[in-house]
Amino acid sequence: MISKSDWDDVQQEMIAEDRQRLGDPPNVEEVKAYLRGELSAEEESRVRELLVCYPDLALALTQEFPSQDAKPGDPDFLSEAELDKQWASLENRIHRTGDPVEPRVLRFWHRTAATLAATLVLAFGGLLWLAQSRARMAKELAEPRVASEEQLLLPDGQRGGSGGSATLSAEGDFFLLVVPLIVPSNDAGRFAHDRLQIVDVSTNPPRSLWNSAALPRRDHDTFAVLVPRAFLRPGKYQVVLYGIDGAGEERLASYSLRVPAR
Amino acid sequence: MTTIHNSDSERDERFETMFRTHYPRVYRFLRGYRLSREEANDLAQEAFTRFYGKIDQYRGEAEWGFLQTITRNLLINWWRDRSAAKRSGKTVEIDDADVRLALTAREEPDYVEREQEALRSKRLHAAITELPEGQRQCIRLQLAGLKYDEIAKTLRISIDAVKSRRRDALKSLKARLRKEPGGIEWPDAIPEEES
Fold first, then answer.
1. Nearest to B45 among A48, A76, A86 (CB)
2. Taking the model in full, what pTM does it have?
3. Nearest CA in chain B to A19
4. What is the pLDDT of residues B63-118, one digit of tens each?
5. Do A55 and B123 lie within an 8 Å CB cutoff?
6. Residues of B (125-164) whose Cβ lies below 8 Å from A
7. Concatenated DSSP letters for A115-167?
8. Which of B5, B37, B144, B184 is disulfide-compatible with A2, CB 3.0–4.6 A?
9. What are phi and psi of A157, to 5 degrees?
C-alpha cells in the first residue's frame, strides 16, 4: 500500500531534486514581479517552479497573518515581560541607527543628498542609455542589410495615364527608393551636383523630413536611397530633386509616393 | 485632519502602539515557519525597524498592511540567504528544524521492507512526475500544506482551476496506481474527497 510516509518521502525527494536543478529561491523583486504578472513566460515558469519546490516560500507569500495573539502556554506566546524586553531592544536598535533622534537639519541634508543622488542616477542612466543606443546604431549601420523592396519612382506628370503616386508595399523594414534623373535635355549638363529631399505632403504646409548632401551627378543618372520603414509613417510623401550649380539650386522634379498602413 | 509630518513624540507614541498591537502577531507568523524564537525575534525587530523609517507614509489599516509586506519580504530574503548558506556548506545548525527532521531516527525496517518501500516510492514518484505540469504543481503544493486559495495565489490561477486540476490529478494517480497492492493511503494534506 502507498502509505502516508511514502508521500512524504516522495515529496522530500522531489523537492531536493528540483532545488538541485533550479537553484536558489527567487528574490523578493522576482516574486513581486511574478505576482504582478510582469515576467516573461520563461521567467514566470521558472519562478513558479521555484515556488513549488520552496513551498514555505509560497506559504510566506500567501498565508494570512494570525488574526489573534497566541495564548499563554502556546510555544509562540509572548508574555508582557518578553514584549517589554523586545521593545527595549527595538528602541536601542532604532536609536543606534540614529533614525528617531536625527536632527531636523541633518534630515534636511539627508533628503537633499538623496534627491541629488537620485538626479545623478537619472542623468547617468540617461547618458548610459544614449551611449548604448548609439553603439547599437553604429553596429547596425556597420552590417549589411537587405532592402525588402526596390521602388522605382517616376517623376510626377510622367506616370502615363494613371497619374497616381507610387505605393510602397506594407512589408519589410527598409525601402530602396530608386530615383531616376529624368530632366529636360537642356538641363542635362547644367548642374554638376544634385540634392534630394524627402517631404511629408500629408501635412499642411508640407514638412521637409530629410535632405541629402550635394550628390555628384553620375553617368547613369540614378540615385538610390535606402529608407528605414520606421522613418516613413503611413502617409503621402514626395522625393524632390534639386540641381545645384555655383549660383544656387533649382527644383528639377518631384516623385510622389504613398506609404500604406501595415 | 492629521498632518503627515508629526512631531517626534507623537510619531514614537504611534510606533509603540503599533508595536504592542502587532509585534505578537508578527512574531507568531514567523514562528509558524519553523524559525527559532531568536530568529523570529530578530526578523520581527528588523521588520519594525524598517517600518519605523516609513511610519509617516502610512495610516490606519495601511500601517498593518505595510508591516505585513515588510515581514513577508524579510522572510523571503532570510530563506534565500539560508538556502545559499546551506548549499555552500559553511554552517550546519543542529537547531535547524529541517536538520532535526532529517536526524530523527525512524525504526529501522528489515531489508525486504526497505526494498518494498523503495519500490513504492519509485512508483509514486513516477506517477506524480508524469502528471501534466499544472496538475503536478497543484498536488505538490497541496501536499506541502497549502490551501486552495494559497495554491491559487501561488500559481496565479483561479480557485476553481486549482480544484479542477486537483480532481484530474487524483483521477490520474488512482488510475496509475490502481494495481498497487493494498491501494493508496491518501496523505492528510490531500484528502481523497474534495474538502
1. A86
2. 0.54
3. B83
4. 888 999 999 999 988 888 877 666 554 444 444 545 444 445 555 567 777 777 88
5. no
6. 125, 128-129, 137, 140-141, 143-146, 149-150, 153-156
7. HHHHHHHHHHHHHHHHHHHHHHHHHHHTS----SEEEE---TT-STTT---EE
8. B184
9. 90, -5
